[in-house]
Design brief:
- The chain is an alpha+beta fold.
- It has a domain at 3-70 and 132-243.
- The chain is built from nine helices and ten strands.
- The protein has helices at residues 3-8, 13-16, 155-158, 171-180, 213-223, 226-233, 236-239, 248-251, 303-307, and strands at 34-37, 43-47, 50-55, 59-67, 71-74, 89-91, 129-139, 149-153, 188-194, 203-210.
- Strands 1, 2, 3, 4, 5, 6, 7, 8, 9 and 10 form a ten-stranded mixed β-sheet that branches.
- A hairpin with a 2-residue loop joins β2 and β3.
- The longest helix has 11 residues, at 213-223.
- The relative contact order is 0.18.
Length: 309
């Protein structure tokens, strides 16, 4: 399919931005964690930490229905194949450690000051704390099954020069490419392909075709589904239940409620002598002004814009 036919079938951005109704009877409800591992340059389906299926093809077609901001992860222990390793510290926004990281494991108050983010802190000239990006996907041939998967991309799949791969791009470049054509990834079937010249798992992306109307309706439903939102927040260890999921208050990044202050003691009423006139008390109406900032709504349908940092 050439570029003209791919991007010529425009849908109105208003339709793409519609908020879908809450899904009932979702096939992947019940706290089942589905993700795709790229270990060994294969697409591996992992459910609750157990590998259940391996796709040995070099490429697969998916719909990217949502994406999280670029995050970071640091492991103090070296990776051992087949052995689950708990992360030591992680950040959901690449700015500060996540609230669910134990205090004694936080490497720094700010990611920009962290010694694990310095070149040479990892193997060779690399950084020990590495960027990653979580995306939520459904497979092209199984959209109607409504089974969402988490895919966590390594830095080599996020950043890079698109000219090196003959039209196949790392995620950030792919997002910019779609945006330049006025498209959103949720409305496009995307090919994910392993870079055959890379010794470590590395994906490149290219557009295949636009979704038809029935497929798009399902993709829009799944974009805001509870499991999709959960998959964007959980790291791999939480998905595999190696470490517990964050508590709801931390999960939603809610601010802790301030401690209740004791009520001030009521002042004793002045004693009134018999026969003394007392001025009628005046009711004072206080105008309360809300100082709490309103939560800003985020249009998660425009996931390409969120990628393009």
């Amino acid at each position: 399919m050439n570029e003209l036919s791919l991007f010529g079938n425009r849908r109105s951005s208003a339709r793409l931005a519609d908020i879908a109704d809450a899904i009932t009877d979702n096939a992947n409800s019940g706290n089942v964690n589905r993700r795709i591992s790229l270990d060994g340059n294969f697409f591996r389906e992992v459910i609750n930490g157990k590998e259940v299926r391996v796709n040995e093809e070099r490429a697969t077609n998916v719909v990217i229905i949502n994406a999280a901001p670029i995050s970071k992860m640091y492991f103090a222990e070296a990776y051992v194949k087949g052995k689950p390793v708990k992360p030591t510290c992680w950040s959901s926004d690449s700015q500060v450690p996540d609230q669910s990281v134990p205090d004694d494991q936080k490497q720094s108050a700010r990611c920009m000051d962290c010694r694990q983010a310095i070149k040479g802190s990892g193997q060779g000239d690399s950084k020990a704390c590495k960027p990653q990006q979580r995306i939520a996907i459904v497979f092209e041939g199984a959209i109607e099954n409504r089974e969402v998967y988490q895919l966590t991309l390594p830095p080599t799949s996020i950043f890079g020069d698109p000219s090196e791969h003959g039209g196949k791009m790392p995620l950030q470049a792919y997002a910019r490419y779609l945006k330049a054509h006025g498209e959103k990834a949720i409305g496009i079937v995307t090919e994910m392909r392993f870079d055959k010249d890379s010794s470590t798992p590395k994906l490149v992306f290219k557009p295949v075709r636009p979704l038809d109307d029935a497929e798009l309706d399902i993709a829009l439903e799944l974009r805001d589904a509870p499991d999709t939102q959960r998959y964007l927040k959980l790291n791999v260890s939480q998905m595999d239940k190696v470490i517990p999921e964050p508590l709801p208050s931390l999960f939603n990044n809610a601010e802790p409620k301030p401690e209740a202050k004791p009520e001030p003691k009521a002042k004793a009423k002045p004693k009134v002598e018999e026969g003394e006139e007392v001025e009628e008390p005046k009711k004072v109406v206080s105008k309360k002004t809300s100082t709490a900032p309103q939560a800003e709504a985020i249009d998660m349908s425009d996931i390409v814009g969120d990628w393009d940092d």
